Amino acid sequence: MQRFLKAVIDRLLALISLIILSPVLLIAALGIKLSSKGPVIYKAKRMGLGMQPMVIYKFRSMHVGMEAQGAITGKRDPRIFAWGAFLRKTKIDELPQLLNILFGTMSVIGPRPEDIDIVRQYYTEEERRTLDVLPGLACPGSIFNYTHGDLYLSDYDTDEAYVNRFLHVKLALDLYYIDHWSLWYDFKIIFRTLGAIVHTAVSKKQAPPPMEYKAVFGDRPIP
Q1: Which string of DSSP letters, residue by residue, matches 114-134?
Q2: What is the residue range of 53's domain?
Q3: Alpha-carbon gap, residue 207 to 143, rounded angstroms
Q4: Residue 88 domain flag
Q5: C-beta separation of 71 from 122 below 8 A
Q6: Per residue in 159-204, pLDDT tens?
Q7: pTM of the model
Q8: Which residue from 101, 102, 181 is spatially nearest to 134, judged by alpha carbons?
Q9: At a CB cut-off of 8 Å and minimum separation 6, what does 163 contact?
Q10: Domain assignment present for 223
Q11: I need a labelling partner for 21 at 20 to 30 A (CA). Which of 6, 165, 194, 216 fits?
């Protein structure tokens, strides 16, 4: 019953959000058109539910053709144009995925869909459990990525750094979410995600790690 309610709530939230945020979506699209030649929407290939490849929609934040140089972006990645960097910082670049949620290929809350090659090459059998549920816009791993990803990733060799230093930490947090899932947990992650975005926008202080980090890793220090 909770899973059915989650699917209904997902679609309602996606539809309401698309209506309310339509001015933001329009401004984001116009900014892209004025900043960089090419399409407004980028169709990213990711691994979805049940190890099935899927396409997710994002506002384009890189110059056209630059994604071929690597799946992961660094702190000052030259492939990203200025307006695209703002969209990434505020997570506005992810809002077109509300369409994925409306179509039923994503959820509001769930493990972020990962690059297909990274999944096939580096996920352990246990980590592939994150593909037993619909991918989402936000999850504990994405909060940690947003607040602490720069501590793990350098400006260069970001694909290698991401896999070796960050990927398995992020997935451990998402596995915790899957094992403790409830609708109330989902609602808490929504508000925690919004809080992390606001904190990053207005404060220069490092945000605390999500509560899942301590639950999984105890007192293990964050690099």
Answers
A1: EEHHHHHHH--TTGGGGGSS-
A2: 2-217
A3: 10
A4: yes
A5: no
A6: 778 888 889 999 999 999 999 999 999 999 999 999 988 888 787 7
A7: 0.89
A8: 101
A9: 118, 122
A10: no
A11: 6
